[in-house]
From TrEMBL:
SUPFAM superfamilies: Aminoacid dehydrogenase-like, N-terminal domain (SSF53223), NAD(P)-binding Rossmann-fold domains (SSF51735). The gene is aroE. Belongs to the shikimate dehydrogenase family. Pathway: Metabolic intermediate biosynthesis; chorismate biosynthesis; chorismate from D-erythrose 4-phosphate and phosphoenolpyruvate: step 4/7; Aromatic compound metabolism; 3,4-dihydroxybenzoate biosynthesis; 3-dehydroquinate from D-quinate (NAD(+) route). NADP(+) binds at residues 135-139, 227, 250. This is Shikimate dehydrogenase (NADP(+)). PANTHER family: BIFUNCTIONAL 3-DEHYDROQUINATE DEHYDRATASE_SHIKIMATE DEHYDROGENASE, CHLOROPLASTIC, SHIKIMATE DEHYDROGENASE. It comes from Pseudomonas bharatica CSV86.
Length: 284
């Protein structure tokens, strides 16, 4: 297959200046012999919000962008602006990658694959009986699908917007046999009976410090997974590790969602090991 003459890609989201995604894509592009430019389209810096998505998509098409990654808070807001969705994106109800080709906008979801890969690599033998998930946004939807696909028996989802949590639970219970997902109402009770905790909220990011659950609800026999990767050691992971919990940081999800997005943008299969090594070379 002939290599594309050049790739112009970007990331749309809020507060994304610390993102490692541009470096991941450009470094792998160079290794593959591609001219590869990856740009940040930061809503905060542009003083915009998700209502600007239509204009940004149109501008990207006019400027010849090959594709865009989409992050908080746009993964669900972008859905009605797309021409088609991959089966994964349609099932999950969230998009983090848009391929721009022949005047069409095709939405994909590589977050689900990314989290599942990290879970299999980092927490392969943990108990999957009862898991608490914090957050039901775009990333949360992808992670919830991954958790149920990886055999979690009961997933209790908490979100500050109860309607959003309910919508995600309804979606999950349509796609997976049995009523394995439910909306959480009593965090203390859910945590007391849980074997695992997953944070899919932005809480813990450098720009949003803190923890999604009180420290007092953590205990040594709990495993804890995080999707935030800047910093790699969030306050939640630091506290959990201090108690002796098994933990999973956001690095593998970040790398493997980028691996699949790179393939979608270029048609070339990247080297996951090289991308992982480059990710960690960028510091903590």
């Amino acid at each position: 297959m002939a290599k594309p003459p050049g790739i112009l890609a970007g990331l749309i989201g809020a507060g994304i200046q610390a993102s490692r995604t541009p470096a991941l894509h450009e470094h792998e592009g160079a290794a593959q012999g591609l001219t590869y430019l990856y740009r940040l389209i930061d809503l905060d810096q542009l003083k915009l919000d998700s209502t600007a998505l239509e204009e940004l998509l149109t501008a990207a098409q006019y400027m010849g962008y090959t594709g865009l990654n989409i992050t908080f808070p746009c993964k669900q807001a972008i859905l009605p602006l797309l021409d088609d969705l991959s089966p994964e994106a349609r099932g999950i109800g969230a998009v983090n990658t848009v391929v721009l080709k022949d005047g069409r906008r095709i939405g994909h979801n590589t977050d689900c694959l990314g989290f599942a890969e990290g879970f299999r690599r980092g927490l392969t033998d943990v108990s999957r009986q009862r898991v608490v998930q914090m957050g039901a946004g775009g990333a949360g939807a992808a992670v919830a699908h991954a958790l149920l696909s990886e055999g979690v028996e009961q997933l209790t989802i908490f979100d500050v917007e109860s309607e959003r949590a309910q919508a995600l639970v309804d979606n999950l219970n349509q796609h997976f046999e049995g009523t394995r997902a439910r909306v959480g109402h009593d965090l203390d009770s859910a945590m007391n009976s849980a074997c695992g905790l997953v944070n899919t909220t932005p809480m813990g990011m450098a720009k949003l410090p803190g923890m999604p659950v009180p420290k007092t609800l953590l205990r040594a026999d709990l495993w804890v997974a995080e999707i935030v990767y800047f910093p790699l050691e969030t306050e939640l992971l630091k506290e959990a590790r201090g108690l002796g919990c098994r933990t999973l940081n956001g690095a593998t999800m970040a790398v493997y969602q980028a691996v699949k997005a790179f393939e979608l943008f270029t048609g070339i299969t990247p080297d996951p090991l090289r991308m992982t090594e480059h990710f960690h070379s960028l510091g903590n």
